[in-house]
Specification:
Structural class: mainly alpha
Bound molecules: zinc ion
Shape: rod-shaped
Helix content: 55-70%
Number of helices: 2
Radius of gyration: 28 Å
Order of helices and strands: HH
Distance between the termini: 69 Å
């Protein structure tokens, strides 16, 4: 009688543990895609911020010098008063930002 009772108790405990592991697995499986989506969204938002910041600095460059910076932004990148840590690169695809020669705005980067 006594051993049978212990056995039922142990198997019940093992069943609860298995159920807990399954539930935790389901929760983790649901959270992983959510984290990767939010990281991708953060990179897209960071790119949009970079584009806005570069466009603002291009306007500042034009107001100060009376000319537009080069489309590859190397002249602006060489002046630490604009981007002290260098002109950022796109956090989404890693490419350098370039200006459209007609609009004088950062081209592309519609993620
Ligand atoms: Zn980008």
């Amino acid at each position: 009688m006594f051993p049978a009772r212990m056995c039922r108790c142990a198997s019940s405990r093992a069943g609860r543990l298995a159920l807990l592991i399954v539930v935790l697995g389901l929760v983790a499986a649901g959270l992983v895609p959510r984290f990767t989506v939010s990281a991708a969204e953060a990179r897209r938002n960071s790119c949009a911020q970079n584009v806005a910041s570069i466009n603002a600095q291009v306007e500042r460059w034009h107001a100060i010098t009376g000319a537009w910076p080069r489309t590859d932004l190397t002249d602006m990148g060489a002046d630490a008063s604009y981007f002290p840590q260098g002109i950022p690169t796109c956090p989404v695809d890693g490419t350098a930002y370039e200006l459209d020669s007609g609009t004088r705005r950062v081209k592309g980067h519609i993620h």
